[in-house]
Amino acid sequence: MYIDERKYISSSWLICGLLLGIAGLALGTFFDLKIDQLLYQPDASWAKYLAAFGPVPAFWGIGAAGCLLIDVLRDRSIWWLGWGVGFVMLLAGPVYMIDSLMTEIDMNWLAAWITGLLVSVLPSVLYAVLMRNTSEQDKIQCIIILLIVCVGSILAVQVLKRIWYRPRFFLLENNPDIPFTRWYQPDRDVINQFAALYAQDHDYFRSFPSGHTQSITCLFLWALIPVYTQKGSVNFTMALSSVVVLVVAISRIFLGVHYLSDVSMAFLITFTLFAICVWGFGLSWRGIQKKFGDEDEDDYDEYEDEFEEEPVEEPKPSRRRRRKKDYDDEDEDDE
Question: How do residues 137-156 score in pLDDT, each as one tens digit?
Fold first, then answer.
C-alpha cells in the first residue's frame, strides 16, 4: 500500500477546529448577553431532547475504553482485572444517563434505565467491535486516547465550573438583581450574595464551561476508527461530528443554560486534548508518513524488482551467415 493511500486525521481539521473555538470565545467576550437574549427559547422541545442525550458521547468513549481493555487482557493472567475495570467503565454511562433523561424530559425510572443502557452501552460495544482486528498496540493506544480526551475533559470542565460560579442566563432572566458576568471574570461573591438560590440548586451557578458541549465534542473520537482500521472515511466522520457538535452547542444557548463563551471554552478543552493526542501519537499526515513511509518504500522496491524486465538474448546467427562472415574476414586480411 502506498503512503498516500493511508487514512489519517488531517491537521487542517485540527487547526480549523481550534481556530473556530478561539473565534467563538472571542465573539462571546463581547456579545454573550446579546446572543442569549436573541436566541432564548426555554420551551424548545428539540433542545430539551438534545440536552437529555447530549452527555452520552463522553461515556461512549469511556465504555469503549473498558471494552477494549477487556479484549487486551482476556488472554493474560490478570483477565479478571480487565473484566472488573471494563465493566465499571461500561456502566458509567447508563448511571449518568438515568439522571439526565429523568431531569430533562421527565422520563420514568424504568424507561430511563432501559434507554440509558441502549444509548450508552451499544455504541461503546460497537466501537470495540470495529477495533477488534487491529493490533494490540493500536488498541492500547486507542484506550489511552479515549481516556485522556473523555476523562480529562470531564475533570477539567467540572473543576472550572466549581471555580467560576458563573450564573446561567435563565437565572438572570428570572432574577434581575443577579449581575451578568463575563467568562473571564470568576466571581465567588455572587454565591454569597444569592445564598438562597445557591442552596436551592448549586447548578444555577455553573454556567461556565458547558458540560454538554464538552461531552458531545467527544464524538470526534470516532474518527480514530478509520485511522486504525483503514476502513471508512475520516473526513465524513469529522464533518458529521462537527455538525452534531454545532447543533448541540446552539441548543444550550436556546435553553438559556449557557452562553457562547461557555460552549466555546468547553469545545476548546475537549478538542485541544483530541488534537494533542492525534499529533502526539502520530495519527496525522506526518505521523503516518513517519510510521509507514519506510515500509511502503520497501514494498514498492520489492514490487519493482518482481516485475523488472529480464534481458533479452539476441538470436544466434545462422550457419550460412557465419560462413559468409568468415569469408569476408579472409578477404579483408588478403587486402
Answer: 999 999 999 999 999 999 99
